[in-house]
């Protein structure tokens, strides 16, 4: 059995690689993105010239260096312990009058890395 994928204009325009395509026949998925068969018995019951739908999965990726630097810049700030104002990383005292220009500052807490299970 041979499966021929016809690329639509949207997959050519977006330059989506073929390993992100997911083949499905009826409600069952035939091939995963790794190319492994999930249900090999489906090939026996497929009629010749039957339609196999190819759907595209957009996988998440890593941030580019520019985006990573921008995110790090947002996290690199000081926080006033009295009024919780966000201050620059170089600040030595708070700029708010409500807390009396307090010198009690702390670094903003870092985001914990969560691993996918």
From TrEMBL:
GO biological process: translation
Keywords: Ribonucleoprotein, Ribosomal protein
GO cellular component, one term: ribonucleoprotein complex
Organism superkingdom: Eukaryota
Listed GO MF terms: structural constituent of ribosome
Gene3D superfamilies per record: 4.10.1060.50
Classification via Pfam families: Ribosomal_L40e (PF01020)
Recorded coiled-coil stretches: none
Matches recorded under InterPro entries: Ribosomal_eL40_dom, Ribosomal_eL40_sf, Ribosomal_zn-bd
All residue ranges annotated as the Large ribosomal subunit protein eL40 domain in the record: 62-112
Record-given protein name: Ubiquitin/60s ribosomal protein L40 fusion
Species, as recorded: Trachipleistophora hominis (Microsporidian parasite)
Taxonomy of the source species: Eukaryota, Fungi, Fungi incertae sedis, Microsporidia, Pleistophoridae
């Amino acid at each position: 059995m041979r499966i021929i994928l016809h690329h639509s204009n949207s997959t050519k325009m977006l330059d989506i690689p073929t390993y992100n395509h997911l083949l499905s026949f009826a409600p069952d998925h035939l091939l995963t993105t790794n190319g492994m068969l999930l249900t090999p018995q489906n090939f026996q019951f497929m009629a010749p010239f039957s339609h196999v739908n190819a759907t595209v999965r957009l996988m998440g990726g890593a941030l580019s260096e520019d985006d990573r630097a921008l995110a790090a810049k947002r996290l690199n700030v000081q926080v006033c312990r009295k009024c919780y104002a966000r201050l620059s990383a170089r600040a030595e005292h708070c700029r708010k009058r409500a807390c009396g220009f307090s010198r009690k500052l702390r670094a903003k807490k870092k985001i914990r890395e969560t691993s996918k299970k």
